[in-house]
Amino acid sequence: xxxxxxxxxxxVHPAEAPREWNWLAARRDVGFAxxxxxxxxxxxxxxxxxxxxxxxxxIRTLGYVPxxxxxxxxxxxxxxIDQWQRxxxxxxxxxxxxxxxxxxxxxxTRYAGAARAAGVSFxxxxxxxxxxxxxxxxxxxxxxxxxTAESYAGFRHPAWAWNVPPHRLWHLxxxxxxxxxxxxxxxxxxxxxxxxxxxxxxxxxxxxxxxxAVSDRLGAGHPVAGT
Length: 227
Known about the structure:
Elements: E1 5-10, H1 18-26, E2 30-35, H2 49-55, E3 61-66, H3 74-88, E4 92-96, H4 105-117, E5 123-126, H5 133-136, E6 141-148, H6 149-152, E7 169-174, H7 181-190, E8 195-198, H8 212-219
Parallel strand pairs: 1-2, 1-8, 2-3, 3-4, 4-5, 5-6, 6-7, 7-8
């Protein structure tokens, strides 16, 4: 089984981490990166993002839109999708905090329908766990694990999901010992994922750039190969 491609929640501002943005732009193994101005596109244009996103021309970029586990209105979600498209011309959308229950299917269907109606051709979602198959089938790729390396050690791929193509499944692992990051990525492939991101960063926001060893080397002026 092949190793999953890198897919990053990229929630670090370009003004705060220009070296990291340049590092990401130079990668050739990234499936997609989810960008997040301010828990979504924010309320006004951010002058830093157009140039920063232009650096990532060779990488599929997705705009971050939270749905608050089904509590947000479809109107609000659709408005943020439109803002991402008009302001930043992203390549797709990632719906975060997605309901992962049978009861949430109706709201997930409405969110996905609004995104597709807006012309979103690549739609990701992140419930952080396996949702029912009917929910998973609404999206091009779904984050089916988000949690610590400790909890990932107990992760088991459901039997019914082995017939889901790997390119539709994404694992997100944080709090990982630096020396274990490569092994976690390999494990994701063995557990059916086509996309993975593992980092030693931790809560409250583990998605503020690459693993800390990468940032440390970039800050010291050293080139970095791989994660």
